[in-house]
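Researcher: I'm comparing several assemblies side by side, and this is the next one on my list. It has 557 residues spread over two chains. Same procedure as the others: predict the full complex and return the structure.
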Amino acid sequence: MSALKNMQLEWLSNIRLRIMTYIILVSALFYLSLLLQDKIKQLQTDNARKLQNLSKVIHLKNEPEWLKRSVMMTSIKVEAVSNLRQAQTQGLAGAEIQSYLQRILDSNKLSRSHITLGNAETVDGPINLWKVGVQIQGPYQEQQLLKLLWQLNLDKKLFTIRTLNFTVSKSASYSLFIDYWFENPNTSSNI
Amino acid sequence: MNMSILQDKHSLTSSHSQNIENILVDSTKNQVSSRFIVPVKRSACVFAHFNFSNLSQSLKQKSLSIQLKKISPFKNFEQYVIWVENDAMVWIWQSSENNLKTKQIKDKIKYIPETILTGSRQKDLIELTKLSTGVEGRIWKNSLLIGSRFWTKEPELHEWNLFLRTHGLKPMAELPKSQPYTLLKEPWYKPTIYQEIFTWIKIIHPLWYISYAAIAVLSFQLTSVVQLSQVNNSLQRQYEQSLQSANEIVTARELAFDSRKSIHQLQQLSPWPMSLKTLADSLQLITDMDATINRWSFNNGELTLDINAKTPDPKLFVEKFESSPFFEDVRINNQTRNSNISLILKVKQKIDYNKFSLDAEEASQE
């Protein structure tokens, strides 16, 4: 008797074999069906995204004003970037700020004030920057503090006064914390 | 049919040996290892024809097994079945399993009754065929072998007519001329691969229901996948074509958005007005209120002011500072006491995002 006939007879006589085969087959088909369903969902999502992109591009074709907008925004960006300080290294950036502030303090006769320079930090973003934080502390004298702020205000380059504290009392003092911003020369090509 | 089987049984009882050597056709005895098809002597076989047209597919095999056990003169037997639709032509012979020397040989060979390797399949015919030993009477009806009887030598006319009568046929005046003996290389009936598959499908018929459902669901899903893929490809092509023609504008738009991101980044680095402006404005307000500053604390946009006032009316100070363009959300600090007023103010951000806004609709799609 051939193996095929044996299999046929075994199949017909063994109900457990049949049931298990049906279960395996149904499971396999169900799994295949789930795979196809996932593929359908993925294609539907993909199609919706592509349709959206297509409609956006078709819409854009009718908007030549983007050329003007681009020129305008680029010129504003260039102007904004030109307000950043330039330095080759973070060390040089810190040194530049130190000497710049010392000059201002000296010119305003704020000899009792002193400068504490923080470490330069890299700030990531559309434009990569260096941040140099500086703290100026000293005894409070209203006119000299206003002069100092006036001098700082004359600076056209970008800086941020984070904190300004002063107290008017017997031990009157002030403290000023400023961030100075430098363009990172290693990534200036993307500007 | 039953008479024919009885006759076959009778012929087997007298001299048949249990050894395999005695049931194989002489010319093939020494070629077992090289040939896969080995003819079994007709004299060693019992033949029967069954019609199962009244039974369902699943019962046919089972019914055949029962019938074979009923008609078999052997305790253990092997069988060769030819299924043609609802008809089964069956040969059974003594199982020779114990006599085989090795399993390897058993797996190599295929035993086929001598009947199927001699003569040919006929449509409607009564014939006498010579075999390796003896002769065989065959009755064909609608291309089915419905009767077969073995004799060691040509039968007498009355024996022949008895054979015919067992199959409901009229007696003949003389014996038909016997066909010469020729051993075929292949059986005269061999199911094609399609028939084999079809047989399998019929046996496993419950699977049809699963298959119908699966085919329906999977076909629907496959069709969807194909259609969606086509749409996907078409959209991709259209997108690429449109992008090519609008390339300049698309690039300009991307550049505009990139530039705006950079501008916003730089704006956010210095979001508040210069401290000098806020200080000057505050001092002016405080002087107007006939008061002096005790403490000024500006910290990341939040300003805390301790004021020494001659008429410490907090409401007046709050209203005054709220009217300033530099401050918002003016509140009284809980630590206020005596003639001191402590205020907490938020310095308004100077960033005007609208100044650099691109088309609002486009910006939302960014």
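Model: For your comparison table: Chain B has three domains: 2-204, 207-268, 275-347.
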